[in-house]
Description:
Layout: H1 11-41, H2 44-56, E1 60-61, H3 62-65, H4 73-85, E2 89-94, E3 97-102, H5 104-119
Antiparallel strand pairs: 1-3, 2-3
Helix pairs in contact: 2-4
Amino acid sequence: MEDDLGSCQDDEFEQRVEQLEALDxxxxxxxxxxxxxxxxxxxxxxxKIVRLLEAAEGELCVCEFAPLLDVSDGAISxxxxxxxxxxxxxxxxxxxxxxxxxxxxxTALLIALDGARESDR
Length: 121
């Protein structure tokens, strides 16, 4: 009589499970980082900030985002902080201003998203 797994109780299955467990352990190390990065982009304001920074091909100050985003300055600062924590933008201080720019990680993600969108057409 077969169990619920059908014929999956042989030695090959056990070996395959061991292989998959090793793969799971290897993948598991990067999952938290990946989820943090994707979570940072999973908000319209944060995603738009990254897109604007990438399109600007340089640095932008918090005050430059205000006319483009329909959110408070505090929300912009919070969004930039989360994007910085996720490694998607960098900031530097210039006098009393903080300038932001995208990282290579953000650029790579945007290229991948653009490519995925294009492949659906």
